[in-house]
Structure to design on (929 residues):
């Protein structure tokens, strides 16, 4: 029971086979302690969603973890046979997604879906399970849980569906909740409510949360530590306050500058010129070098070393 | 990789994989047989010879002879003409009729026109094609019709009928695609340019509806072969002595149990292989035409 | 601006309503009263020429519907749409057709805004030909205009021969803007132009719009849910909720000192990250203090969870 809840070492994920094989996640290290909120931040093509799917062992067909270890509660998930992993999934690690509509069965009332989920993993008896369903719905902030449990997914708003999906995920009391862009498709007012809800359940259930997002400001509101990904690798990580106040990697620094804020600045909005590399089409040297404002010749030809401090790292020549 | 090898790989890929390529080869073979029948068939398919009746496959007659001494191989080669003509032209008629109807219904939606079209098509497609075919042939008859100088042969009647029966399926397929493509922003952008509806329909929406239609057309080619064979089998299609795989099977009916296996096996095999070929090509095309857009988006 | 002569707004909406009739079951058809939903519920606003006007709202507010009414993709159920003082409904068909070119739109979803089967060259040259039928014959003139359009939106001419799926989201959005510019519009309605783009690319499109406004005098209606972007480049904004406008004014006033509670709610919901309060404009003492890390969310645990509706 000691040691981190989740320790990912050197995870690499590759897609395709034979001549088309491309590395989409390279050598990722992650660590999540019990009860911690850790965020995985990156833009499209950074590999953050694939990393999460690899942890859940839910990678799409043709995509496979090619190396590394994913040690959850002392067990390497990559070594587990499928049945053992199926048991863990849902019970110990759960995941919520960006689009709750496709994650919920449209033909079954939501209460029933949660009921079935609980029944699969625990035996609380019929009454006991029903009570638990209503407790869960209340925990995720749904008013009138008894009536609402009869509703169908399409009768609910986006925010409500997200709450239901969360209830489904935490129904069996997992130790780790992976949230993959849970609020991206929601309005900003609903987003704030969902963030509040997530923090509440984290507090009440003692969950650890891996929060995946592209929204740095959102992440800074609830997370303890952040991992920043670019082109399939982690380029920087550390406690959220220090990362935001004094980023060590140029990508983090430039990205923070780009976030639109109500700061009444005038003049053109900062951007990062160019495009991120296509999946698996990495240049020699640092993947960010073509777009970096602090790059030099060394950056384009050699892979940068990893600078480390206790609890922090950055993959850049200039990090120190 | 040598240029030839690279070109071969591209060819296979364009058929959607090795299975699709195999299907394409089968069809190419069929086409060659049908077009080159006079050159390929070793003997005259109509040549009767009482002496050579019911000969087993062997020298002189590689696939044997039938009950009137006609060479089975030659009849199969010539029979491919009937199958291919009926099947291909029926699909052409189906496309020519079905695609514009579906396009119009899907693009100019929300009115009585759309409802009228779709409900009529649904009514027609409620009855299976084969039943329709038999019923219509029963009504129209198997004799050739004289319209002025034109002789409408039985084959022509069959393929026109089949083509019309394909219209609902192809129309519905086009309609479904047209419905969703018409909502796309690029159509709205064209409207904003002041371009007229009909023009947008043909130049913007139509090309994006064709993928599923092409796949379905390939599968309908397969169905056409079977229907032609079935209709000829019951005596309502190609009339003897003109060979057709269907009527060859019909005349082999009496010999199923008496040991002259070559009379039924070879026409049956011809039908099966051809149908499988079309189906494989259709599946291969479907894999190639549809997920390509999804695959290229997977990079995001 | 000359205060004595009020300029005619480029585009004006007077009491625009757009209703949709809900179709329910068979039995309800016999009931005379139909159920109507108003996507746009009595909106009046005026967009001055040369302005970047921001329309802010969440999903379901009707802002996209309003944008589509303004470009006349949708007809309003009632109300007047005036263009340069003239009621569009009163114009002849020929005049209305001519008006088409002057108002263009840029869409949110970049993957469906370009015909996937047409190369960029064809998409853009079709737009050019639609504007000027004579151009149909002059291929050299078209080629020159294509080059100038691509240059204007900051794209390499190499991309002309690509298909949309070979371009990134940001590049596709620029092509969408180029297509709109090909019509030489006076008013551009940009419906959530950057929502589907990465944060690091959003600035490219926003800056482009600002440049076009400045250099070409292009009037822009920017529809967005992102208050920060709207605050940055818009001269005037309107906040929409449930089909109505709840507040209008310059962003410096509306967002710094909102009057309507909904505006206040919107502002409160924006994630603040570590930068503490965002609402105070730059130049005050707070901006000069060292960044104070916000208390961890855990400590600010909201006592009463806002229950779902």
């Amino acid at each position: 029971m000691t040691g981190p809840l989740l320790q990912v070492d050197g995870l690499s994920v590759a897609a395709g086979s034979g001549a088309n094989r491309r590395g989409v996640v390279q050598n990722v290290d992650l660590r999540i302690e019990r009860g911690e909120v850790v965020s995985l931040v990156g833009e499209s093509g950074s590999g953050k969603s694939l990393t999460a799917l690899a942890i859940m062992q839910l990678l799409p067909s043709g995509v496979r973890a090619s190396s590394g270890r994913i040690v959850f509660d002392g067990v390497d998930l990559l070594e587990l046979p499928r049945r053992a992993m199926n048991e863990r999934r849902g019970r110990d690690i759960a995941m919520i997604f960006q689009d709750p509509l496709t994650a919920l069965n449209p033909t079954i009332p939501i209460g029933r879906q949660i009921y079935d989920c609980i029944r699969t993993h625990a035996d609380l008896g019929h009454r006991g399970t029903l009570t638990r369903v209503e407790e869960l719905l209340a925990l995720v902030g749904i008013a009138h849980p008894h009536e609402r449990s009869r509703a169908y997914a399409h009768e609910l708003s986006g925010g409500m569906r997200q709450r239901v999906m969360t209830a489904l995920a935490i129904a069996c009391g997992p130790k780790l909740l992976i949230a993959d862009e849970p609020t991206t498709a929601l309005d900003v007012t609903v987003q704030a409510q969902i963030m509040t809800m997530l923090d509440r359940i984290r507090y009440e259930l003692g969950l650890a949360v891996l929060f995946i997002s592209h929204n740095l400001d959102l992440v800074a509101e609830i997370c303890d530590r952040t991992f920043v990904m670019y082109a399939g690798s982690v380029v920087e990580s550390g406690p959220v306050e220090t990362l935001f106040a004094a980023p060590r990697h140029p990508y983090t620094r430039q990205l923070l500058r780009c976030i639109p804020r109500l700061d009444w600045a005038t003049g053109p909005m900062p951007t990062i010129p160019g495009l991120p590399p296509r999946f698996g089409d990495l240049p020699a040297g640092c993947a960010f070098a073509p777009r970096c404002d602090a790059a030099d010749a060394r950056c384009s030809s050699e892979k940068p070393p990893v600078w480390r401090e206790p609890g922090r790292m950055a993959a850049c020549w200039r990090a120190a | 990789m040598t240029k030839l090898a690279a070109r071969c790989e591209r060819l296979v890929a364009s058929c959607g994989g090795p299975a699709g390529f195999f299907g394409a080869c089968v069809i190419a073979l069929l086409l060659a047989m049908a077009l080159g029948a006079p050159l390929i068939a070793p003997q005259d398919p109509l040549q009767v010879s009482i002496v050579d009746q019911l000969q087993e496959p062997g020298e002189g007659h590689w696939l044997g002879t039938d009950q009137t001494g006609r060479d089975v191989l030659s009849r199969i080669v010539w029979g491919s003409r009937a199958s291919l003509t009926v099947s291909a032209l029926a699909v052409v008629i189906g496309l020519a009729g079905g695609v514009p109807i579906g396009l119009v219904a899907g693009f100019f939606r929300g009115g009585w026109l759309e409802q009228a079209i779709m409900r009529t098509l649904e009514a027609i497609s409620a009855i299976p094609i084969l039943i329709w075919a038999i019923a219509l042939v029963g009504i129209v008859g198997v004799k050739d019709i004289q319209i002025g100088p034109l002789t409408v042969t039985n084959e022509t009647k069959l393929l026109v009928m089949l083509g019309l029966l394909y219209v609902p399926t192809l129309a519905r397929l086009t309609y479904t695609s047209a419905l969703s493509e018409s909502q796309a922003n690029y159509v709205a952008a064209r409207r904003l340019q002041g371009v007229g509806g009909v023009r947008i329909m043909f130049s913007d929406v139509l090309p994006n509806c064709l993928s599923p239609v092409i796949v379905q057309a390939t599968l309908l080619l397969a169905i056409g072969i079977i229907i032609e064979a079935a209709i000829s089998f019951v005596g309502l299609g190609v009339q003897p002595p003109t060979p057709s795989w269907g009527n060859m099977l019909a005349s082999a009916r009496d010999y199923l149990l008496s040991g002259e296996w070559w009379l039924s096996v070879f026409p049956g095999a011809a039908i099966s292989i051809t149908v499988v070929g079309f189906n494989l090509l259709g599946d291969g095309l479907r894999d190639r035409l549809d997920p390509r857009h999804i695959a290229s988006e997977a990079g995001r | 601006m000359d205060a004595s002569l009020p300029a005619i707004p480029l585009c004006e909406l007077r009491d625009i309503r757009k209703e949709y009739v809900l179709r329910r079951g068979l039995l309800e058809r016999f009931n005379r009263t139909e159920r109507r939903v108003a996507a746009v519920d009595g909106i009046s606003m005026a967009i001055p020429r040369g302005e970047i006007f921001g329309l802010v709202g969440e999903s379901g507010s009707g802002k996209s519907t309003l944008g589509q009414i303004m470009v006349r993709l949708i007809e309003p159920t009632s109300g007047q749409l005036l263009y340069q003082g003239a009621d569009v409904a009163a114009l002849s068909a020929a005049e209305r057709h001519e008006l088409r070119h002057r108002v263009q739109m840029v869409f949110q979803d970049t993957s469906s805004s370009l015909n996937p089967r047409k190369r960029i060259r064809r998409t853009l040259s079709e737009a050019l030909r639609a504007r000027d039928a004579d151009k149909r014959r002059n291929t050299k003139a078209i080629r020159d205009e294509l080059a100038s359009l691509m240059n204007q939106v900051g794209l390499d001419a190499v991309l002309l021969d690509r298909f949309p799926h070979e371009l990134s989201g940001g590049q596709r959005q620029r092509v969408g803007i180029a297509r709109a510019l090909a019509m030489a519009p006076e008013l551009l309605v940009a419906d959530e132009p950057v929502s589907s783009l990465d944060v690091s690319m959003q600035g490219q499109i926003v800056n482009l719009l600002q440049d076009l406004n400045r250099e070409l005098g292009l009037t822009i209606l920017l529809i967005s849910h992102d208050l920060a972007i709207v605050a940055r480049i818009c001269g005037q904004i309107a906040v929409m909720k449930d089909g109505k406008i709840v507040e209008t004014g310059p962003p410096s006033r509306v967002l710094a000192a909102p009057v309507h509670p909904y505006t206040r709610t919107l502002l409160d919901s924006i994630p603040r990250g570590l930068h503490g309060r965002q609402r105070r404009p730059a130049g005050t003492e707070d901006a000069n203090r060292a960044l104070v890390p916000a208390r961890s969310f855990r400590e600010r645990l909201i006592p009463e969870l806002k229950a779902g509706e």
Observations:
- Chain A touches chain C through 54 residues (CB under 8 Å).
- The two ends of chain A are 35 Å apart (CA to CA).
- The mean pLDDT of chain A is 88.
